[in-house]
Amino acid sequence: MARIPAEENGAEKFPKQTTFNLGDLVTDRTKILTDAERVQLEEQNKRMVTDFQAQKLEREARKHWDLFYKRNETRFFKDRHWTTREFTELLSARCPAVVDDDPLETDGQPPNTTKTLLEIGCGVGNLIFPLIEEGHRNFFIYACDLSPRAVELVRKHNLYDDRYMSAFACDITTDEVFGTLTEHSLDIATLIFVLSAIHPDKFRVTLSNIYRLMKPGGVVLFRDYGRYDMAQLRFKPGHKIADNFYMRQDGTRSYYFAEDEVSALFRDVGFEVLVNSYIHRRTINPKENIDVPRIFVQGKFRKPD
After folding, report:
1. Under a CB-based contact definition with an 8 Å cutoff, are residues 277 and 223 in contact?
2. 139 with 131: CB under 8 angstroms?
3. Which DSSP string corresponds to 145-204?
4. Model-level pTM?
5. Is the dihedral of CA 88, 89, 91, 94 positive or negative?
6. How far apart are CA 88 and CA 90, in angstroms?
7. Which of 102, 96, 143, 131 lies closest to 1, judged by CA?
8. How far is the C-alpha of 124 from the C-alpha of 150, rounded, in Å?
């Protein structure tokens, strides 16, 4: 595993992402808050989500996501055409768990496929269907989501085809996924804006389950909200559940990650860190007069051979 020498504070450093958007800042340093931003965060502590509310949100997580997709159906999230640009492992070429263009022998491997891919937290298919539209059809694609309603919308999509994909509902924080997939069966898994929706107490078991699913050499592609992202700073009192963990108006939740925290989470369950960093990016829409600074954590994590 390639590493960048540690800085004076002793923190271990890893290779950075390559920038893909003009103006991106790729760094391992956490954003330095202004005085005004510090005040915003302190204000959030004046009224926290009660323990009773927090436990109820956890119990009803599936219900809140089902209601989200009942309201929004396929209209909320944009198709993720950027994924093949920033995660070239998704292109129709070999991946780390493929040798001489032949898939590794694995029980449960679908026939006549080069790779197996699982999109965790697939929503309505905003990652998998752009892949298919762009001609990347040498995957057998699995797609799972906590929300049965989201999975139903995936199955109704005109590009859904049982011959090379399988969508199913499951709670990735439990053993439910192993009712559909066997251990050591995946070449690639995507975890894009998903881990942040899970309670921090369940991060480790979630990543442990994913580790069990991956073939030796398999890679997890990760992107999620970064520490002190604009969305975190904008929360008002009454929405904070715990440090860096918040409740949205619709009952769904969001966690904001530090770059070194993500590396540690993956390494603790056995993954190697291939690359991991913050990406500072501006979301610009001149027509709507939008210019918003965003912070993400993006990385790639490999199960050792």
Report:
1. no
2. yes
3. ES-HHHHHHHHHSTT--TTTEEEEE--TTTGGGGGTS-TT-EEEEEEES-GGGS-GGGHH
4. 0.84
5. positive
6. 5
7. 96
8. 5
Query: For 217, left (φ over 0), alpha (ψ -120 to 50), or beta?
Result: left
Cβ atoms of 221 and 148 within 8 Å: the answer is no
CA–CA distance, 183 with 231 (Å, rounded to integer): 36
Q: Helix, strand, or coil here: 279?
A: strand
Q: Which domains does the chain have, with CATH numbers?
A: 25-87+114-303 (3.40.50.150)
Per-residue pLDDT tens over the stretch 75-118: 545 556 567 678 888 875 444 433 333 434 444 445 444 689 99
Token pair of 249, please?
């108006």
- Is there a contact between 129 and 79 (Cβ–Cβ < 8 Å)? yes
For residue 145, which amino acid is it?
D
Q: pLDDT, tens digit, for every residue of 254-272?
A: 999 999 999 999 999 999 9
Give the SS3 label for residue 253.
strand
Question: 203 and 81 in contact (C-beta within 8 Å)?
Answer: no
Contact assessment for residue 299 and residue 277, using Cβ atoms and an 8 Å cutoff:
yes
- pLDDT mean over 179-197: 95
Asked if 165 and 144 count as a contact pair (C-beta separation under 8 A), the reply is no
Positions of E strands within 34-100? 98-99
What is the rounded average pLDDT of the residues 245-262? 95
> CA–CA distance from 271 to each of 10, 65, 302 (Å)?
21, 29, 5
**What distance lies between CA 99 and its chain's CA centroid?**
27
- Distance in angstroms (rounded) separating the CA atoms of residues 253 and 102: 41
Q: 140-156 burial string, b = 16+ CB within 10 Å, else e?
A: bbbbbbbbebbbebbee
Predicted local distance difference test score (pLDDT) of residue 69:
82
Q: Are 229 and 299 within 8 A, CB to CB?
A: no
Only one residue has tokens 């078991």, namely: 205
